[in-house]
Amino acid sequence: MTMKPETASKSGNKSLSREAIFFMILLAIQFGVQPGLTRRYTPNDVCKSSVILVAESIKFFLAFSMLFVSGNTKSALGGWTIYSWISVAGVPAVLYAVQNFAALIAYQNLDGLTFNVLNQTKTLSAALCCYLVMGRRQSNMQIVALILLLLSALVLEGIIKMDFFVDHTTASKMELSFDPQHFSHGVAPCLLASFISGLAGALSQKNLQGAGSRNPYLFSMELCAFSVISLGLSLMASPDGQMIREKGFLHGWTPMTLVPIVTNSIGGILVGLVTKYAGAVRKGFGLIFGLFISGLIQGRETGVSPEQITGGLLAGISLWMHATNPAVPTKKTKKD
What we know:
Number of strands: 0
Radius of gyration: 21 Å
Strand content: under 5%
Order of helices and strands: HHHHHHHHHHHHHH
């Protein structure tokens, strides 16, 4: 007996649905404003574990509310067990918890545009991990699109100068200034968070789009619950746990600290929805528009540079190439 595959499971090889486009737009807005909000309203001396615990708790209640409003609570919880929760959400939840720590450190030490540019490497890791985890390959043109995406990030970051495209002799004259603090507390945590995001996104996509696919709101709740429990247990022996015991759970907080936490929590729900309806790779491309938004916000003070314009054009071309040149699945011949 042959089973009809889920429509969502083909989202990586079909045109985007209205739901996918809508959630990708919301995610782009949240992604664009998040670095600035976090850097502005999250003090460096705040306990990072307390921030993540509150964020995951808010995200849990948001997901529960949306599940309840959708009217799918009964069907989503049908057949739910503690074993299925741990097996489905355990590994992604731990990965996302590590990602949250790394991203928070990077948020506090990088400007919004730099963070979002480096963060786009998650699209590359998502494509690789989707292939390794789900066997979902990329077409030759999609591989070229991913290379263009990486090139756009390098141009926007200023690693590849505009002069390089005009005069190749300047390549030997490029000087890269290395700031250990900038790298260890900004670039490295951001790249780590991006890689983990790609791996966790592929595992989440498998659970959301595979056989017996999970309701995205329920899956978000499961991730949050597992993260809260595991992080709470880790506080018994971690430096953050000692800080909480000595200085209190809300040490370093201000009333405005909740603003980036709430927007980040909403972003977490949107990530699950975009992964469900568009896939982990296209989620990364949707975040490119968030990159444009962060660039516009930063450009209000510094202006828009030629690197930003060139990088944006390269990213737009890569999006078009990736969306219009999907991998053609190999057809298996059937014998009647």
